[in-house]
Fold each of these.
Amino acid sequence: MKSRWTVQRWALWVGVGALLLLLFPGRAWAQGGTQSGSLNATDINGLFGIVLLLAILVFFLVEGLLVFAIIRYRRRSNDEMPEQVHGNNRLEMGWTLGSAVLVLVLFFFTLGFYQQPRGLPANSEPLSVQVTGHTWYWEFFYPDSGVRLVSTTDTFRVPAGRPVVLEITSADVQHSFWIPELAGKVDAIPGRVQRMWFQVDEPRTYVGQCAEYCGREHYNMLIDLEVLAEPEFAAWYGEEAAAVAAAAEVDLQAEAAALTGDPAAGAVLYQDIGCVACHALADVQVVGPSFLGLGARAAERREGYTADEYLRESILHPCDFVVSGFTCVMPQTYGDQLSPQDLADLVAFLNQQ
Ligand SMILES: [Cu+2]
């Protein structure tokens, strides 16, 4: 009687467990990593499939032999004494070599996988993002544009159909970057940069989280990833990048205005960065207007601009105001090249002409 009760109790617990699994599958599945959203994840899952297949074969082999032995060599009468065996060289060699071969096969497949993700698909234009773990949020920095996002308030956005290369590090303690459906997890270690990449072809959202216990709010270090179709990504990214550039521009202008310019340093810049190719100091017109008398006329050039403001604007945004008789062929990228001090020096130099 007692043993049957135990069987029933086990059955009950197994049933309750299965029910709980059915009731709360939500996030648990998303973290399983068995659905693949990216090229890399497909490879990881392929590897997982191979390991699983081998494990199943080994399971049935071992359990089969066990059941076979139990039945075939069961004790048939009370006074029966089975044959006693001590060691079997052939068998032992067999299972040692057999397992060694299995391990080698697994090693071979795994090695192939480890090498594969280091190379990006040929002819791709990857997007680079620097990922930094902080207690307790993720920072995503796009070095090409200066766009910076934080996981607590922003959605991490990347384009579909293009590899995204992540350079992962940490600003404080150890974290681990993990978006289960996209790729393996990569530890974020202070003072070290680890690279990984993924490519998602269909626009979709994914969730990820820190996978290394890092303190009180570790549970809350979540990542919302949105993979956008290329045109939508370009639109969003363009806006963010423009906002960053505008903010940098405001800073550059304000910082340059607060500095005292050195005309001698400005004269050197005039030569070195090539203003001299289009502007002359004497009364000769080259491509652009001569700088002769510029200091005196700068304040009158544009309504509402002081001489300094006009000169800074003319260097940073030459095409916003075009001197009559000229077309705007002046480079519009000086804002990216010049430091606030450079700008102040050039303005001081121009004011003296
Ligand atoms: Cu953590």
Amino acid sequence: MTHISTDISDITILCGVDKDCNPESVGEIQIKAGEIVGIVGPTGSGKSTLISDIEQLACGDTPSRRKILINCEEPDQILRRDPKKKRIAQLSQNMRFLADMTVLDFLRMHAKSRGKNSDTPQQTIRTANTLTGEPISEDSQLTILSGGQSRALMVADIAIISDSPVVLIDEIENAGIRKREALRLLSGRGKIVLVVTHDPVLALMTERRIVMKNGGITGIIETAETEREVCAHLSELDEYMMELRDAIRCGRSVEGSYLDAFRSAGSL
Ligand SMILES: Nc1ncnc2c1ncn2[C@@H]1O[C@H](COP(=O)(O)OP(=O)(O)OP(=O)(O)O)[C@@H](O)[C@H]1O
Ligand SMILES: [Mg+2]
């Protein structure tokens, strides 16, 4: 049974300034344990920067001048310096493994440092393989994994081994992995989840979304009931796209049955 961390019950973003040093329109945002919050905005609007402010536990010392509180208090300096104590997991936008070791050795090392059971590394690989088309084998070198495989492995590692109460996700949709399953795996169990996304399905899966422009937060939108319905329809269309993508990836032709499926997905 995985240990559920309850030591971070909320985080608060005390807003700062945008790229032109104008104050952000929202004073503060509090996110409670168990919440999934989206971050949306055009390219270059400051989404990754906001995630990085949270990851660094900014205290007015970054260009945005934001401050991050944990449990309504300014975090101790030790928390900022010691990644083990910080307990914030980040899935960054562009990542590649640099360590020269096998997948299994890496997971064993991580599981041991987190005091996890010895069967956790294999469980992590099995979980990663539910997210990616081309399976990861335990004796592969980390450096030869593809972008999608690396992402899938990190998602499973964060979900199963890291067990951090705060999870920051930067654009999971571009990695070619099963994004909705990945978000479900990473969220829940009382975690605080922030997910940067350009994807409407993921954005509408969240409870509310922070809107960014020109480096600043310009608003927060609660996901409305109609948006949840739109999300359900979009998920079906998305499922269709996944099947089509898989068929094309596996070298199959797109036959009549796909057209029928498209018509029924389109007429939802
Ligand atoms: N509040 C801010 N003050 C000053 N500079 C900022 C601020 N917010 C973002 N920037 C700068 O703007 C640039 C773009 O920001 P960022 O990479 O966070 O955008 P993004 O929304 O993640 O874009 P993409 O969708 O392309 O990933 C970066 O160089 C960043 O340092
Ligand atoms: Mg970004």
